[in-house]
Amino acid sequence: MRVLVIGSGAREHALLLALQRDPQVTGLAIAPGNAGTARIAEQHAVDVTSSAEVVALARAVRADLVVIGPEVPLVLGVADAVRAAGIVCFGPSRDAARIEGSKAFAKDVMAAAGVRTATSEIVDSPAHLDAALDRFGPPAGDAAWVVKDDRLAAGKGVVVTPDRDVARAHAAGLLETGHPVLLESYLDGPEVSLFCVVDGKTVVPLLPAQDFKRVGVGDAGPNTGGMGAYAPLPWLPDDVYRDVVGTIVEPVAAEMVARGSSFSGLLYVGLAITAKGPAVVEFNCRFGDPETQAVLALLESPLGQLLYAAGTGALADFGELRWRDGAAVTVVLAAENYPGRPRVGDVITGSEADGVLHAGTARRDDGAIVSSGGRVLSVVGIGDDLSAARARAYDIIGSIRLPGSHFRSDIALLAAQGKIRV
Ligand code: GLY
């Protein structure tokens, strides 16, 4: 099986590495990729938001399966075009990708499927902002205002704050540029990212993971695309996880079928485990980054065959997934100033070691690997438990040099210390 992966992040690097371990995968191509993925797959420079270019490439590399990583091509309907060309695709249709692309659509599906989620309100005019903020606050205890950009914003469009002025400023800034704002009630409790492979009807959950969205140690500072992750979650009881599949994911998949927007691909369920039980924070229509780097490091089942089964509606026959024992931790190395405008073009050393996945990297004409984006690398440590996996990840990151770069030193720390309780 020849597989074409679309995307350029460490998530796509992790997908390639897991696909490479599948004995039925005989060829790998990626577009546009990065300096790390170029070492393990044929690399092609195409505009991944152009259906015509992706289909032409899939034909040129004789792909049996196309795996679309990022949300933007999915929301634009690139998966529909690949399927229309007669090529198996892992990724939802444009209609189904609205579960991520339109927060209003996601809320509607959840209401119809009877799924617990935050209450929310769209504000589309500055004149209505203050009254809406009052309806969602002032928050009590540890609670906070949750203000979201109603568009795709690579994880950076959300502000969660107990400070009304900060919440108001974020919302007013978005409204000034003509973008509606979503206000949500605050869901307390630890967050879980549960990735489910779905072929329309059948749901196959992967190991649950947790990511770290804020830039600084102790969850300080602004939100990012994700600064680290770990899997599995020793603090999450198995029955909660099974219950989420039965009471949230399967009803949502069934509701999508009922609406004629059947979801085939990776349904990412972002949950908060609140005092009243699990509640949905968000759905995404693709693998999460950086959780994928940790989750796929532990997968023993053949990923190419799994994604092909999803793309052909054959998941019911796939059987149980197999996982290696132990834990995986991924830590993101970010460029100076990220999540603001990152400094780029600096030479990186130590990035070719095992366990280093590339994201914002490029190879210069002289052969040097240089930074080219905000999240530059993801390092992945695997170990018998979370402490061992953390130690390995921080060992690897300690051997990498990138001027001005930063990373969080507390990824998976509380979980390794047994300090997360539900
Ligand atoms: N880790 C957050 C995301 O992928 O959206």
UniProtKB/TrEMBL annotation:
Q: Which SMART domains match?
A: GARS_A, GARS_C
User: Entry's HAMAP family?
Assistant: GARS
Membrane-crossing segments per the record: none
Instruction: Enumerate the SUPFAM superfamilies for this protein.
Output: Glutathione synthetase ATP-binding domain-like, PreATP-grasp domain, Rudiment single hybrid motif
Q: In which pathway does it act?
A: Purine metabolism; IMP biosynthesis via de novo pathway; N(1)-(5-phospho-D-ribosyl)glycinamide from 5-phospho-alpha-D-ribose 1-diphosphate: step 2/2
Q: Which GO terms describe its biological process?
A: 'de novo' IMP biosynthetic process; purine nucleobase biosynthetic process
Name by which UniProt lists this protein: Phosphoribosylamine--glycine ligase
Domain ATP-grasp as annotated: residue spans: 107-312
Which cofactors is this protein said to need?
Answer: Mg(2+); Mn(2+)
Per the record, the similarity remark reads: Belongs to the GARS family.
Entry keywords, A to Z: ATP-binding, Ligase, Nucleotide-binding, Purine biosynthesis
NCBIfam families per record:
purD
- E.C. designation(s): 6.3.4.13
Catalysed reactions, semicolon-separated: 5-phospho-beta-D-ribosylamine + glycine + ATP = N(1)-(5-phospho-beta-D-ribosyl)glycinamide + ADP + phosphate + H(+)
User: Which GO molecular-function terms appear in the entry?
Assistant: ATP binding; metal ion binding; phosphoribosylamine-glycine ligase activity
Q: Output the InterPro entries linked to this UniProt entry.
A: ATP-grasp, ATP_grasp_subdomain_1, PreATP-grasp_dom_sf, PRibGlycinamid_synth_ATP-grasp, PRibGlycinamide_synth, PRibGlycinamide_synth_C-dom, PRibGlycinamide_synth_C_sf, PRibGlycinamide_synth_CS
Q: Which organism is it from?
A: Mycobacterium helveticum
One Pfam family of this chain: GARS_C
